[in-house]
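--- STAGE predict ---
source: upstream dedup step, 1 unique chain passed
mode: sequence only
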Amino acid sequence: MDGEQNPSGQHEYQDHGPVQPMNVHSINVLAVVCSDIDGVPGARQAQIYGRATIDGAGEFVYRIHVEDRGEPGTSDKYWIMLSNGYNSGSQTLIGGNVQIH
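--- STAGE serialize ---
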């Protein structure tokens, strides 16, 4: 959140291909919606909406779905969808750790 309590932040996503390699970089964050994950005690999820460039060009709407399934983050999930039709599908993180408070 910025000083006026608006959502803010930076996001970068890299698809290494081979089908559709691309670099997605956020321009802004328009909204963040957080909630509990039913049936998973202590787990949280978030939907993040905004606009991004692909390979440094254009402007595309993105929706990111992340799941924080506890520590140390070995079962956290990530999913990005773009207005050009790109859909990563829900993926368990290989590295990193989603933390939703």
